[in-house]
Amino acid sequence: MEIKSDPVGGVRIGELLGGAIAAKRKKLGWTQAYLAERLRVDAETVSRFERGVTLPSLQRLFEISETLEISTGELLVGCSQRAMDQAAMLAARMQSLKPGDRDFVVNQFMLACDYLEAREAR
Question: What is the domain-level CATH number for residue 15?
Answer without folding.
Answer: 1.10.260.40
